[in-house]
Design goal:
Helix content: 25-40%
Number of strands: 15
Shape: globular
Largest sheet: 6 strands, antiparallel, barrel
Order of helices and strands: EHEEEEEEEHEEHEHEEEEH
Strand order of the largest sheet: 2-3-7-6-5-8
Distance between the termini: 52 Å
Structural class: alpha+beta
Strand content: 35-45%
């Protein structure tokens, strides 16, 4: 099973062969030999789009295979044309990359562990293990945006087990096997399966919206990129009505 989204997150159109197709809760579960559709995982929602023009409503990883929920049947052994909804994908890339930058800088500056991460349809929440002051939150936002505007290249690697042993990286759990490491040079090194921008400038902007005490640390709500712009546009509209 070739995971095209890991090789190139900017790839939105692809051809593949249907490996299997089974009736499943009001639709069809389709497995392809290769796919650019990101399955839900690591705090990141699934991609949507079409296969041969048929809507793909949900994408999950099951036993190493990427399963596409489709509205109609696709014949096993046939070739299909896939198209990923780019607006949704790029939004998720901006959010996920912005989260890495904020979490990485918080970890380096204030020793915070990221203990929870949720990418909602409106905002992202990050749970940090250390309580931060209002000044530190402002510093964090400024540092994250400065990093974005410096436009650092983002690198993806699959280090050897020997390299992994000496590498300092963020991970929520102990990892074995082939580990995908995402490098945001000068901000973050993290084990992650998600889709990310190719350079930090593409995140555009990070806006921290709120910070509440949560357990022994804080829960931060934030928006990145186009979501940050849309948020500011809504604020502007509210102020002019």
């Amino acid at each position: 099973m070739e995971k095209l989204y890991q090789q190139d997150p900017f790839l939105t159109r692809f051809t593949a062969e249907v490996v299997s197709c089974a009736a499943d809760k009001g639709g069809w579960s389709v497995v392809l030999d290769r796919t650019a559709f990101y399955p839900e995982g690591g705090g990141q929602p699934w991609d949507t789009g079409t296969l041969n023009g048929i809507p793909v409503t949900q994408v999950q990883e099951q036993d190493g295979a990427v399963v596409h929920n489709c509205a109609a049947r696709l014949e096993p052994g046939t070739q299909v044309e896939g198209a990923v909804d780019w607006a949704r994908r790029f939004d998720l890339m901006q959010q996920h990359s912005g989260e890495h930058i904020v979490s990485g800088i918080a970890h380096a500056r204030y020793g915070c562990e990221n203990v929870g991460f949720h990418m909602g349809s409106d905002v992202i929440t990050i749970d940090l293990s250390v309580e931060l002051t209002q000044e530190q939150i402002q510093e964090l936002e400024e540092a994250a945006n400065r990093y974005i505007w410096e436009d650092h290249p983002i690198q993806i690697a699959f280090p050897s087990p020997q390299e992994l042993e000496v590498l300092e990286y963020r991970s929520k759990k102990a990892l074995t096997g082939r580990v995908r490491i995402v490098y945001f040079p000068g901000a973050d090194t993290c084990a992650c399966c998600g889709t990310h921008v190719s350079s930090s400038g593409q995140v555009g902007l990070v806006k921290l919206l709120s910070c509440q005490k949560f357990r022994s640390g804080v829960r931060i709500e934030l928006v990145c990129g186009k979501r940050a712009l849309d948020h500011l546009s809504r604020v502007w509209e509210q102020n002019h009505h």
